[in-house]
Q: What sequence folds into this?
DNA sequence: GGCCGACTGGAAATGATCTTCTCCTCATGG
DNA sequence: CCATGAGGAGAAGATCATTTCCAGTCGGCC
């Protein structure tokens, strides 16, 4: 099993490329079709989510919206949780790009980091206008059942924050004795959680004010104890 | 409906106390029996949870364990989620007491706060030894569906942290311009989330070290940017 | 053209759970 | 002793995710 992983080569050096190409060509079409279908499921799900502002949709809804069938759904996805994960990763990737772009407009590394943190906070809040209720429901639920996958999804964002933090560190603007990687991880987790946690609101007798981006940045950057 | 909430008084000032007493007496027994039953459900659920280390039990299991019936369960609880909430509140209350006790042994308010934060962190981690897998699964799930209730459950802990933070503030040990209430809220949320988030672990290729209590305290207290 | 196999849609079947309901029994208080 | 409400047993409803079946479809191949 260590060699010959799949049907790649039966006898090493054998199987002239023409045959591989033929197979490849006949494969490509199907692959494309599959990708389109997957995308249709993803689009439908995304639509439903932004529409009803929650991630509590049924597989059936997605299937109906995408004008495909359950049969097909399960042919392309291992299950609902894979669909969720895919959407989550995608949303996070888009947010990461957005944050990256915003942060790149700053010369001062600390300013960049601040911008990143504040934007991440805004993007992570529940329903800033019904656009992205994804993290709020997803991540928490998945965190319990599939922590590894959630971390995989977080990876690109974490990398971005790490690199921003490293720049700050390089400029000597990081507290001494603090690893940029760790700082970035803690910051990311804090921002995302506080955003979702203090976002939803609020029985009358509960004047829990929602926490502002400013406040969160102040907390992460400055801590709470005076030097 | 604003007056006469229940069967307390039909005509204000009417209903001589003897009748009220009679009713009250005949009520008390039933009330006690009900409380016992509720407790049996709670105990059974708690047992199952600590036993299988997860909160994924079925109502049926609880019913069986408590040697009662579904009929009875739904007579005493609005549904499964109320049971969960009750257990959650209880666990949190116990943890709060424990933290309170630990913190009270310090003269220096900052030491007290540090102790509280570190203990809260430990208590919030997934499976420090299969004793308290409650927060880890509960809170996240509930946060999405019943944020108000989660906040209500968090209230006692938040009060404790707030009071500890206020003491630190009174001693001039808090960063200037920072409200003790807000600082406490942010700290609590950060600690609890980072604990659950960095607790579970970890695909081989993922050397995400779990974050230590020390690190978290350092982060909350000192922030990440040098003064 | 005609055949073959992978892919699909459509819909019914499964299985797990939560929740409700019906039929009874029983202890308690009057 | 009787009326009453609580409680037990278990069937019945409801939702969903996930599987299975049954039949067409479509593209490539002989």
A:
């Amino acid at each position: 099993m260590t060699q010959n992983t799949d049907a790649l080569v039966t006898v090493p050096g054998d199987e002239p490329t023409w045959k591989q190409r033929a197979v490849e060509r006949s494969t490509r079409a199907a692959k494309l079709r599959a990708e389109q279908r997957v995308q249709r499921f993803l689009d439908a799900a995304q639509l439903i989510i932004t529409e009803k502002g929650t991630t509590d949709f049924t597989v059936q809804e997605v299937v109906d919206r995408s004008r495909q069938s359950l049969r097909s759904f399960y042919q392309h996805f291992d299950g609902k949780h894979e669909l969720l994960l895919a959407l989550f990763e995608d949303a996070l990737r888009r947010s990461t790009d957005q944050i990256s772009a915003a942060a790149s407009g700053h010369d001062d590394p600390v300013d960049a980091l601040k911008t990143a943190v504040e934007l991440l906070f805004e993007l992570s809040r529940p329903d800033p206008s019904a656009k992205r209720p994804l993290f709020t429901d997803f991540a928490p639920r998945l965190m319990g059942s599939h922590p590894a996958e959630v971390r995989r999804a977080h990876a690109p964002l974490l990398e971005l924050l790490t690199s921003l933090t490293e720049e700050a560190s390089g400029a000597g603007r990081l507290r001494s004795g603090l690893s940029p990687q760790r700082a970035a991880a803690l910051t990311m987790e804090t921002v995302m959680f506080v955003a979702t946690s203090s976002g939803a609101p609020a029985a009358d007798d509960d004047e829990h004010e929602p926490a502002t981006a400013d406040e969160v940045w102040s907390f992460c950057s400055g801590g709470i104890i005076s030097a």
Q: What stands out?
A: Confidence is low (pLDDT under 50) at residues 1-11 of chain B. Chain B touches chain A through 50 residues (CB under 8 Å). Residues 26, 29-30, 58-60, 70-71, 73-74, 79-80 of chain B lie near DNA strand C (CB under 10 Å from a C1').
